[in-house]
Design a protein that fits this description.
The chain has about 475 residues and is of the alpha/beta class. The protein is built from 14 helices and 20 strands.
Length: about 475
C-alpha cells in the first residue's frame, strides 16, 4: 500500500512528530517535559542533528538543519534523516507521523517527507509472510504555513512513480518479460493519461530493426517496441522531448556469457532505463505538466539459446548502418541504436536515453551518480546537472572527444559494437552517437540502478534512479 502524504490539520498528542527546528526553537510548545528539553539541549550542544525521544505512545524527533551548506546538500541531509526516521517509526510500530515545520521552510519539510516516504517502499510480492513484514507507517502529514497543495500532490506523484520504477526493476524475468513490460507500461498509460502503442515482432521485422531483432534471436520470447506519448493542450514545447529507455528484461550476456556471481544474478535490472523513462512519463502525465514528451522502449531478453547472434556476425541496423558484433554482451547499444534512429521521425528538440549500459561507468563512479555524455548544448547540460544536484542523482559528464570514435572502427562493417579495454562507457556513447542527428544526451545508470546493500532512502535492490531527475528537469522546462 502506498504511503499517504497529506497536509496536517492539527497535531495530535499521541501522533509521532518531527520538529524541523534550529537551536533557537522554544520547545515548551510541543508537549515536552523539562527533562526532555534538557536532553534536547544537551544533544544540540554535542552537535547532533537528529534527536529522538520515545514517549511510548509516540516518538518525537528533533531535526536540526545544518548551517553553511549548499542547499542541495542540505536537502539531501534531510532526506537521509527522513530515512532514519522512517526506520525508527516502523521499528516502534507507528502508523503515522506529522512533520512540524517550525522554521517555515516548506522545501525542507518536503525533503524530510520525501526521505520518509521513499524509505517506506517495500517489495513483498513473493514473500510468504508479507502481511507480518509490512511496514506499520501509512500516513505522513506536513504542517507548514507556506505549503502549497500542488507541492504535496507532486511529492506524492514522485514517490509513486519512483516506487513503480523500483517494482519493475525488482520483478524477476519469470514475470517481467518483454511483452509483460509493455503491458505494465500500457497500464501506466491508462492510469496517468498518456498514449501507448506496442509494436510486436512482426511490426519490428517490417521496420527492419536489426539491432533489437539480433539481440532477440537467442530468446523464445518475442521482442516489443513500446511508444509512449503525452501531449497536453497548451504544451510549451513545439517539438517533443524524446526519452529512450533500454529494456533488456534479462541479460545473460548471450553467447559472450556473463559469470553468475555478482554479475548475471542481478541482470533482471537491465531494464532500469526503461523503468526510469516510462515511470517519468507516468509522473509527468499524472502531474499534468504542460510538456510534450515521447518515450521509446525497445525490449527483449538476451540469451545464448535458439539461433542466438554470435561474435563475428554483421548486423544491418534500422538506420541502414552495419555493425560487426564482437561481443554479444554489448547488446544494450544494439537495441538503443535502433530506438535512437527511430526517434528522428519525431523531429525532437532533445533526446535523452537512459540505460544500464556499461560496467565501465559503474567502475568509474560507483553508485554515487550517473555518467552522462552527449551533444546537447551547454545550456541544456547545465539544466540537467542542476536537476541532478537538486534530487541528488548527480551527473558526471565524461569527455566525448572524436578520438574515441576511432576505437569502434571496423575493417568489416561501418562500426563494431565494442571499443576495447579503455574508455568503455565513452565508446558505448560514441556508438550511440552514430544514430543521432539531433541534440542528445546519454545517461549510463549502471552504477546506481541496482544496489546490493541498503542505501538510505534509495533502499536496497532497484532504486528507481532517473525518475526524479527527469521529472524535475521536465517540471522546470514546463514553467
Amino acid at each position: 500500500m502506498a504511503t499517504s502524504i497529506k497536509k496536517a490539520i492539527k497535531t495530535a498528542s499521541n501522533t509521532s512528530i518531527v520538529l524541523l527546528a534550529d537551536k533557537k526553537t522554544k520547545w515548551s510548545a510541543y508537549q515536552l517535559t523539562e527533562k526532555e528539553v534538557a536532553w534536547i539541549n544537551q544533544k544540540i550542544k554535542a552537535d547532533e542533528q537528529l534527536i529522538m525521544i520515545n514517549q511510548f505512545d509516540r516518538l518525537v524527533f528533533v531535526l536540526i538543519t545544518k548551517d553553511k551548506q549548499e542547499r542541495h546538500a542540505q536537502l539531501e541531509d534531510l532526506r537521509n534523516s527522513g530515512s532514519k526516521i522512517c526506520s525508527a517509526l516502523n521499528t516502534h510500530k507507528q502508523g503515522s507521523v506529522i512533520i512540524e515545520d517550525v522554521l517555515n521552510d516548506t522545501e525542507a519539510a518536503l525533503a524530510i517527507a520525501e526521505g520518509i516516504a521513499l524509505s517506506n517502499y517495500q517489495f513483498l510480492k513473493y514473500r510468504g509472510e508479507a502481511d507480518k513484514e509490512k511496514n506499520s507507517l501509512q500516513t505522513i502529514a506536513i504542517n507548514s504555513k507556506k505549503l502549497d497543495k500542488k507541492d504535496l500532490e507532486r511529492l506524492a506523484i514522485i514517490v509513486e512513480a519512483t516506487s513503480l520504477a523500483r517494482t519493475l526493476v525488482n520483478e524477476p524475468q519469470s514475470y517481467l518479460n518483454a511483452p509483460k513490460l509493455a503491458e505494465e507500461i500500457q497500464k501506466m498509460g491508462d492510469t496517468a493519461g498518456f498514449q501507448v502503442e506496442v509494436l510486436n515482432k512482426t511490426k519490428i521485422e517490417a521496420l527492419k530493426m536489426g539491432g533489437l531483432l539480433a539481440v532477440n534471436k537467442g530468446s523464445q520470447t518475442p521482442p516489443t517496441f513500446t511508444i509512449m506519448e503525452y501531449k497536453p493542450r497548451g504544451a510549451v514545447n513545439k517539438k517533443p522531448l524524446v526519452l529512450v529507455g533500454k529494456g533488456v528484461v534479462y541479460d545473460t550476456g548471450g553467447l559472450s556469457l556473463k559469470p553468475t556471481p555478482n554479475s548475471m544474478d542481478t541482470m533482471k535490472c537491465d531494464m532500469a532505463g526503461a523503468a526510469a523513462v516510462s515511470c517519468a512519463i507516468f509522473a509527468v502525465a499524472k502531474a499534468k505538466l504542460k510538456y510534450h514528451v515521447i518515450g521509446l522502449v525497445p525490449a527483449t531478453d538476451n540469451r545464448p539459446g535458439e539461433n542466438a547472434y554470435t561474435p563475428g556476425d554483421v548486423i544491418e541496423m534500422y538506420s541502414g548502418k552495419t555493425v560487426e558484433v564482437l561481443n554479444t554482451d554489448a547488446e544494450g547499444r544494439m537495441l538503443l541504436a535502433d530506438a535512437l534512429a527511430y526517434a528522428k521521425k519525431y523531429k525532437p528538440e532533445l533526446v535523452l536515453d537512459f540505460a544500464t549500459l556499461t560496467g565501465a561507468a559503474a567502475a568509474a563512479i560507483g553508485p554515487y551518480g550517473i555518467v552522462c555524455m552527449g551533444t546537447a548544448d551547454e545550456k541544456i547540460k547545465n539544466k540537467l546537472k542542476k536537476s541532478g544536484n537538486y534530487v541528488y542523482e548527480r551527473l558526471v559528464e565524461f569527455p566525448f572527444w572524436d578520438e574515441y570514435k576511432n576505437l569502434i572502427k571496423s575493417d568489416l562493417a561501418d562500426m563494431k559494437n565494442i571499443g576495447g579495454p579503455i574508455g568503455g562507457a565513452i565508446t558505448a556513447g560514441k556508438f550511440l552517437e552514430y544514430y543521432t542527428d539531433y541534440p542528445w544526451m546519454h545517461f549510463d545508470i549502471a552504477g546506481p540502478a541496482f544496489i546490493n546493500n541498503n542505501d538510505s532512502y534509495r533502499g536496497k535492490n532497484g532504486t528507481g534512479v532517473g525518475v526524479r531527475l527527469l521529472f524535475d528537469f521536465i517540471l522546470n522546462a514546463s514553467k
